[in-house]
Amino acid sequence: MNKAFNRKKDKSWMHTPEALAKHFIAYNAKFLGNTEVDQPKGTEIVKDAVRKLKFQRHIKKSEGQKIPKVELQISIYGVKILDPKSKEVQYNCQLHRISFCADDKTDKRIFTFICKDSESNKHLCYVFDSEKCAEEITLTIGQAFDLAYKKFLESGGKDVETRKQIGGLQKKIQDLEAENSELKKQLQVLEEQLMIAQVPPGNSMSSKTSTDVFDMVPFSQMTPLVPLPASNGSALPPPARPTEIRRDLFGAEPFDPFTCGSADFPPDIQSKLDEMQEGFKMGLTVEGTVFSLDPLDGRC
Length: 300
What we know:
Layout: E1 2-3, H1 17-21, E2 25-37, H2 43-62, E3 69-75, E4 78-82, E5 89-94, E6 98-103, E7 110-116, E8 123-129, H3 134-155, H4 158-197, H5 267-282, E9 284-286, E10 289-291
Antiparallel strand pairs: 1-6, 2-3, 2-8, 3-4, 4-5, 6-7, 7-8, 9-10
């Protein structure tokens, strides 16, 4: 293993200090994963972690799973591991928590670093596979450490505390963003369930008026017929009866027993009606035979 922290002080670095202090250096690599280790540093510790993760990746590869690709952003503040497409931060390893970094001389594609987890306080070894940049990435992390140490000496240690506070705030922001994303998913699921549970208004049974056996709408005393108001706000007058009286086939006016009175008949017809009414009182004559309506009368 080639340890980046043991470089000579007169070693010429690959990047300018401004590139790591004000910005970051990005690399693409394959992420084999991370695993817990017992010690914060050590070549044998790293070798065991690499063998373990390679074996796990060999099993996953036989199952059809590919090694995920990641983007590494290296600066004096730490190493960020991001998704190369969405740019979502998967891990944020602060520089003051990284205790060991090395590339493998037997397998020049592999490089690793050990970082202490901020929540569990466990030491995790991160293993990456880069076909051409393994040693360059290791040197870049070593240069970031060198610049961060110089800045620490210049600030008298205050800069480290500031970075710790910034790192803590960044972690809280990531947690809140993850929680917000989960709440959005739950809200979307609830909205979909609510849309499925709702019945369309056109199919609602309550909006359909019930009818009787003759398909007639029943009359309801609760909704009396009220004349609609006119355009000026006053009630419409009742419909007027037609002035022209219809006549039947014989030219006679139709008989209306609810509206006609004794004065509506001509005098000759009225006298005939009076005689007929007296006849019903005394008896009825049909073709010369008298039928009495008196039950005590013996005539039949």
